[in-house]
C-alpha cells in the first residue's frame, strides 16, 4: 500500500503548485471524485523508489461567505482522515494568519504525523523569516519553494519518514500463492456488498473463515472451482454474523489502493444511475494503474430494454478508453449473470499475467511489419528489429529498432491489435514501448 500524504493549508499558500510538483505534472490528477469529494484531488507521486499518493485540498477561492470556509474545513478534515501524514503548508512571504493558527490547533489535537512547510521561501534567509512559524508548535519548519522545486525532495523524505511502513517491500502474497487478487470497485450503492455476499453465499465458493489483514486493507480469501482468489476490500468490509457489511461510506484512498494491489478490477456500475463521472474516474484510475478491468452493469433486473440500450451507448462513449474491458450485465440481488463474470475475471487475470516469449513476440512483430510497414516520417523510416516482454500486470511489450520515435499512434494501435490477437489478450491494457538504438 502506498502511503498517503495530504496537503492542507489556507487558500493561496501554494498547495496546488506543490501538488503539481509532487505529482510531476498537471495531468497527474488521477481522480477528481466530483460530487462526493468536491475539489479534492488525488495524484500519484514517486521519489526514487518511494511511491505515494498525494491529496490536494486546494481549489478553493477565498470567499466572504462562511459557507465556503465550512466546506473547506470539511474537505481538509476528510483528506486528513484518509492520510498517513499531513503536510501543512503556510506562506513564508505572507507570514502567519489567524487561519493558520486554526488549522494548526486542529492538527495538533488530531495528533497525526505532520510536517510544517513554509512555502514561497525561495531567496529567503531561513532563520530570520521562518522564526514566527514555530509559534504553531508543530515542530521544525521546512522551507520550500514549490514553484522553484527547492526543498521539495527533503520535504518528501521527511514526510515519508514519519510513516513507519513507507518504503517497505509491498506484500505480494497473491503473486506467490497463485491467487487472483480482485478488487470490486464502484460508487456507493452500486451493489458491491450485495455482490460480495451473493458470492460468499454460493455453494461453489469456499470462503476462508478469517479475512486477512494487509495493513489496513482487508482481504477476503476464497476458492472457487480450484482457483484461489483474494478479494481486496474497497469499502471497509466487516463481518457481521454470516454476511459482510460495508461499514464505511465510500473511501477514495481505499478504492485507489485496492485497484493498485489488484490483478483484476471489477468495476460495478449501477444500471439505474447510468455511467457517472465517478465511474469514469475510477475506470480512468484503473487504466492508469495498468489494471485489468471487467465491467459489470449491476441491477440489470431493474431496467427495461430501452434503458439497457441507452446504457450500452453511454458506456461506448463515456468509457471508450476501456474498450479492452469485457462488459457484463448482472443482477447481484437476483444472482443473474454471475457465472460468465467468473469466466471474464479468469480471462482478464490470465491476460494480465500472460507470458510472451521473445521469439513469438518477434515473429508477430516481423509478420506485422511485412503485412504493413510503418510509414516514413520526416525523412526517417522506422525499422523494427525484435520485441521482448518488459513486464506483467499490465503486460508490456518493448520493441527494439531504429527511428522508432517516428512511429505513428495509428501504427502502434495496429501492432497492439496484432499482439492482442496472438496472445488472446482480453480485459487488460497492453503497453507498447519503443527502444531506439542510436
Ligand atoms: P493553493 O490555493 O494553496 O492551492 O495555492 P496555489 O498553488 O494556487 O498558489 C497560489 C499562488 O502562489 C500562485 O500564484 C502561485 O504561483 C504562487 N506560488 C506557489 N508556490 C510558490 C513559490 O514557491 N514561490 C512563490 N513566489 N510563489 C508561489
Ligand atoms: P454498495 O454501497 O456498493 O456496497 O451497495 P449495496 O450492496 O449496499 O447495494 C445498494 C442497494 O442496491 C441495496 O438496496 C441493494 O439491495 C440494491 N441492489 C444491489 N444489487 C442489486 C441488483 O442486482 N438489483 C437491484 N434491483 N437492486 C440491487
Automatic annotation (TrEMBL):
PROSITE patterns, alphabetized: G_ENGA
Q: Where is the EngA-type G domain?
A: 3-167, 180-353
Which key words tag this protein in UniProt?
GTP-binding, Nucleotide-binding, Repeat, Ribosome biogenesis
Matching entries from InterPro entries are given as:
G_ENGA (IPR031166), GTP-bd (IPR006073), GTPase_Der (IPR016484), KH_dom-like (IPR032859), KH_dom-like_a/b (IPR015946), P-loop_NTPase (IPR027417), Small_GTP-bd (IPR005225)
Membrane spanning residue stretches: none
| Protein residues bound to GTP 1 | 9-16, 56-60, 119-122
Q: What's the subunit arrangement here? A: Associates with the 50S ribosomal subunit.
Q: Which PANTHER family match?
A: GTPASE DER
Name of protein: GTPase Der
Organism, scientific name: Acidovorax lacteus
Amino acid at each position: 500500500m502506498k502511503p498517503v500524504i495530504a496537503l492542507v493549508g489556507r487558500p493561496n499558500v501554494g498547495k496546488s503548485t506543490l501538488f503539481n510538483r509532487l505529482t510531476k505534472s498537471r495531468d497527474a490528477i488521477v481522480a477528481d471524485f466530483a460530487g462526493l469529494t468536491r475539489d479534492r484531488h488525488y495524484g500519484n507521486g514517486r521519489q526514487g523508489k518511494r511511491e505515494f499518493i498525494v491529496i490536494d485540498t486546494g481549489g478553493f477561492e477565498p470567499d466572504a461567505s462562511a459557507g465556503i470556509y465550512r466546506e473547506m474545513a470539511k474537505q481538509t478534515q476528510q483528506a486528513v482522515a484518509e492520510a498517513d501524514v499531513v503536510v501543512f503548508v503556510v506562506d513564508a512571504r505572507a507570514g502567519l494568519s489567524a487561519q493558520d493558527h486554526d488549522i494548526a490547533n486542529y492538527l495538533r489535537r488530531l495528533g497525526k504525523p505532520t510536517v510544517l512547510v513554509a512555502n514561497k521561501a525561495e531567496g529567503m534567509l531561513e532563520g530570520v523569516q521562518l522564526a514566527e512559524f514555530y509559534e504553531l508548535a508543530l515542530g521544525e519548519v521546512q522551507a520550500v519553494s514549490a514553484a522553484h522545486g527547492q526543498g521539495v525532495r527533503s520535504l518528501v523524505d521527511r514526510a515519508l519518514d514519519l510513516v513507519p511502513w513507507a518504503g517497505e517491500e509491498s506484500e505480494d502474497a497473491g503473486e506467490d500463492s497463485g491467487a487472483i487478487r480482485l478488487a470490486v470497485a464502484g460508487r456507493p450503492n452500486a451493489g458491491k456488498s450485495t455482490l460480495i455476499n451473493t458470492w460468499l453465499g454460493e455453494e461453489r465458493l469456499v470462503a476462508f473463515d478469517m479475512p486477512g489483514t494487509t495493513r489496513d486493507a482487508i482481504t477476503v480469501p476464497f476458492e472457487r472451482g480450484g482457483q484461489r482468489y483474494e478479494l481486496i476490500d474497497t469499502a471497509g468490509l466487516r463481518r457481521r454474523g454470516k454476511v459482510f457489511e460495508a461499514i464505511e461510506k465510500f473511501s477514495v484512498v481505499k478504492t485507489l489502493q485496492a485497484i493498485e494491489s489488484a490483478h483484476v478490477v471489477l468495476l460495478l456500475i449501477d444500471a439505474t444511475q447510468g455511467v457517472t463521472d465517478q465511474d469514469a474516474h475510477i475506470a480512468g484510475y484503473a487504466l492508469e494503474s495498468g489494471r485489468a478491468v471487467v465491467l459489470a452493469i449491476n441491477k440489470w433486473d431493474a431496467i427495461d430494454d430501452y434503458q439497457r440500450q441507452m446504457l450500452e451507448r453511454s458506456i461506448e462513449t463515456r468509457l471508450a478508453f476501456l474498450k479492452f474491458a469485457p462488459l457484463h450485465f448482472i443482477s447481484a440481488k437476483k444472482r443473474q449473470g454471475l457465472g460468465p463474470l467468473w469466466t471474464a475475471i479468469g480471462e482478464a487475470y490470465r491476460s494480465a499475467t500472460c507470458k510472451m516469449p521473445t521469439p513469438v513476440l518477434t515473429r508477430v512483430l516481423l509478420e506485422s511489419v511485412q503485412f504493413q510497414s510503418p510509414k516514413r516520417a520526416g525523412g526517417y523510416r522506422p525499422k523494427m528489429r525484435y520485441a521482448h516482454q518488459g513486464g506483467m500486470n499490465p503486460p508490456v511489450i518493448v520493441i527494439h529498432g531504429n527511428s522508432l520515435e517516428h512511429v505513428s499512434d495509428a501504427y502502434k494501435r495496429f501492432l497492439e491489435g496484432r499482439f492482442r490477437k496472438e496472445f488472446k489478450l482480453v480485459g487488460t491494457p497492453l503497453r507498447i514501448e519503443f527502444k531506439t538504438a542510436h
